Amino acid sequence: MLGTTAVVLATTIVNVVLHDVMRDFGVGQGRVQWLATGFLAAMAATMLTTAWWVRAYGVRRTYTVALFIFVAVSLAGGFATSIDELILSRIVQGAIAGVIQPLAMIALFEVYPPEERGSAMAAYGLGVVLSPAIGPALGGLLGQLFGWRAVFFVTLPLCLAGLVLAPSRLACFEGGAARRPTFDSMGLLLLCAFLLFVLGGLAQAQRQDLSQLGFALVVTGTLACGAAFVAWELRRSHPMFDPRVFRDPVFAAAAAVGFAYGVGLYGSTFLVPLFVQTISGFSVMKAGILLLPGGLLLALCIPLAGRLTNRHSPHYIVCAGLACFALSFLLFAGASARTDFWLLAVWIALGRLGLAMMIPALNAGAVQGLPLGQIAQGAGALNFVRQLGGAFGTSLLSLVLQWRMASHQGELAASVDTAASALDAATRAFDDCFIVVGLVFLSALWPGWRIRRVAATTQ
């Protein structure tokens, strides 16, 4: 749990200091968004390889080596002297985080008997949820006191404690397979190519360097690599990503909701700190504290949502959560520099309440219709789709923000007060992005409603 908490904390803690990074390196939000997008994309890609690393080297060696590398690249990020070094360190951080995060669940399933796994998973879920809850506030405090570089060092005590405990506490996991399984290098290569085309294309669009031919190449490359990856995985007897799980219509619906969940969760944690620092003029610490009440509410409400999921069909709870999150960001679409701190905090808390409702119901409803042998693959695919949604959503929202800002600046170009005109254009652009987040969650209501069939057929 120490390692998992560290990597989950690192996922969003940087978002609250993005404004300071932009200022120090003199770059725009199109470049700095790669600190979030690159991490999430790399995490999505390598998360599918964890099972192979465990089979080949065992949990203890995989965990120890991965955590050591995570410490090294965290230090490299903290001491980076250019934006390119910083982005590279975040990408490597994300790649290692993708390997580490599932290890705690694997170990807990091995250690705890079936009758105690519910309590173990509750502790695991609470740790995973509390990390992003306290992360922005902690990042804001450290950023205010010591500068943005401090957020790269905050996870080091957890990592070092994990490295100290691993040799003794993970002693039962020291072995790997006697015969090392074949690594799916082609599958990983095709997946990385797919992610590169998607996210690279969005990045080029932000720089306005994407011609019509370039756009056609990006679309063709994305479709070709995606189709080739699916075809390759279907041919393998032990795929790292099994597309067959999507034949189940309920799982496919849950995956669509999971994608929207990733877009909303990671996209909002990217947008909100930028909004309150750029438009509202909040300090980095105040921006972090703004997210704290909602994060704590999320952690407190998840156990209740789990009990509701046990008693009621998942589709009711998932749709209620989607509606709460959509309403939260449709309210945000009316925000301005004059919006009160506590009103913003209440809107964020409403969205986090929606996420708390969704998480247990979505996870439970997604895999109930799958055969026993496909549940592990289904859980891995759902996590992958959620991370992919986060990477895609962050890039897309960054592109929409830049596009709408330029559009609104053009509309207000004739304004006498240039400073007020620029602030108004930026406010309208952020509001447009909040509407996009709200619409994404509203569009997920239809697949969310279809998750009910799992409960109806299996109970």
Describe this structure in words.
Helices cover 80% and strands 0% of the residues. It is an all-alpha fold. It has 3 domains: 1-170, Up-down Bundle (Growth Hormone, Chain: A); 185-235; 241-459, MFS general substrate transporter like domains (Growth Hormone, Chain: A), CATH 1.20.1250.20. The chain starts with a helix and ends with a helix.
Topology of helices and strands:
Layout: H1 2-12, H2 18-25, H3 29-32, H4 34-47, H5 50-78, H6 83-111, H7 117-146, H8 156-169, H9 185-206, H10 212-235, H11 249-278, H12 284-311, H13 314-332, H14 341-367, H15 375-411, H16 418-443, H17 445-450, H18 452-458
Helix pairs in contact: 1-6, 1-7, 1-8, 4-6, 4-9, 4-15, 5-6, 5-8, 6-7, 7-12, 9-10, 9-15, 11-14, 11-15, 11-16, 12-14, 13-14, 13-16, 15-16
Nutshell version of this structure?
This protein has helices at 2-12, 18-25, 29-32, 34-47, 50-78, 83-111, 117-146, 156-169, 185-206, 212-235, 249-278, 284-311, 314-332, 341-367, 375-411, 418-443, 445-450, 452-458. With 459 residues, the protein is mainly α. It folds into 3 domains: 1-170, MFS general substrate transporter like domains (Growth Hormone, Chain: A, Up-down Bundle), CATH 1.20.1250; 185-235; 241-459, MFS general substrate transporter like domains (Growth Hormone, Chain: A).
Brief descriptors of the model:
459 residues; mainly alpha; Growth Hormone, Chain: A; 3 domains; 18 helices; 0% strand
Count of helical regions: 18
Which fold name fills CATH's third level, the topology of the largest domain?
Growth Hormone, Chain: A
Low-pLDDT residue intervals, each spanning 5 or more residues: 454-459
Principal-axes geometry comes out as globular
Q: What is the end-to-end distance?
A: 32 Å
Per CATH, the superfamily of the largest domain is MFS general substrate transporter like domains
